[in-house]
Design goal:
7 helices, 297 residues, alpha+beta
């Protein structure tokens, strides 16, 4: 069986919830699962979305669950284009039997790890597939249908939508330079490094306290961290004598898209090798396995 390399990109999922005239960012892994189940339960005619602006139709076609990881397959096709078919060896041409409303089927695969505070996503990246923005828009359209069928019991105007942040995995300094807003810095430190006054609050016999504590710094409303501050945080991670083990920064890049910098992901692999079927299509079983490995690493 032959194989091919596929580029992957990383993202963080969260929800924006609008309840009783208040709105806030949150994450609800159970709700994410419920929405996936709702979408896959819809008849195909209601699941498929036809996007005339890009001449593409697509739908969520398959979900595989593995502990905290949800592997998701989308099917899509590009329509409105029916050129003749050409033989790659002889150059001979013949008319295609494809109709204008038909297109070659393409697959897009992603996997989402359901963490306590986010959905951490790795997406197969390919030009013929679906982008993360199209996938999120698709899910949000189906959330509207879900809320029409299952309205919130306490607020008839309740709304919720899925959103994403880019998680760069290349050079930290470059990624930081591409950010225009720095809003929240979460600094992970060893539990032993906190002062005795706080340490005394933790019973020694409590086995459920994690070894790492998270210090959360937030910029003042309308302001940003100085980038030098973030660089100092990041430098502390590589200092063996420092109690800082990880840095995670939330903000926006120069194009205004939400972005997260995570020192734990810098230099993580940007490609995977997956098996091809006899027809040249990527094996869904193979790529699901590789995407899951990345999330479990």
């Amino acid at each position: 069986m032959s194989s091919i390399k596929r580029k992957v990109n990383f993202y963080s999922f969260s929800f924006f919830e609008f309840l009783n005239k208040e709105n806030y960012e949150t994450w609800n892994a159970k709700l994410f699962d419920i929405i996936l189940d709702f979408i896959i339960s819809l008849p195909l005619s209601e699941r498929i979305l036809k996007d005339e602006s890009i001449k593409k139709s697509y739908y969520l076609s398959f979900i595989e669950r593995n502990d905290k990881v949800r592997c998701i397959q989308f099917k899509s096709c590009k329509f409105g284009h029916c050129p003749p078919i050409m033989d790659s060896d002889t150059g001979d041409e013949r008319n295609t039997d494809k109709e204008l409303n038909e297109g070659d089927q393409e697959l897009t695969h992603l996997a989402v790890r359901l963490d306590d505070n986010e959905g951490f996503c790795v997406l197969e990246s390919r030009r013929a597939g679906l982008t993360i923005s199209k996938i999120i828009s698709y899910i949000n359209e189906k959330i509207v249908l879900y809320l029409e069928e299952f309205p919130h019991k306490d607020d008839k105007n309740y709304r919720i939508h899925l959103t994403y942040s880019i998680v760069p995995i290349n050079d930290f300094d470059k990624a930081l330079g591409d950010m225009s807003k720095l809003k929240i810095a979460n600094i992970y430190v060893n539990k032993e490094s906190i002062g005795s006054e706080l340490n005394n609050l933790i019973p020694e016999e409590d086995p459920f306290i994690q070894d790492e504590l998270i210090l959360s710094f937030k910029a003042k409303r309308g302001e940003n961290f100085i980038k030098r501050t973030i660089k100092n945080f990041y430098s502390a991670v590589s200092n063996t004598s420092s109690p800082v083990t990880r840095v995670r920064i939330s903000g926006e890049n120069l194009s205004g898209t939400s972005q997260i910098l995570d020192s734990e992901l810098i230099r993580k692999t940007q490609s995977i090798e997956v098996d091809l079927l006899a027809n040249g299509i990527v094996s869904t079983k193979s790529i699901f396995g590789e995407l899951t490995k990345l999330l479990e690493a």
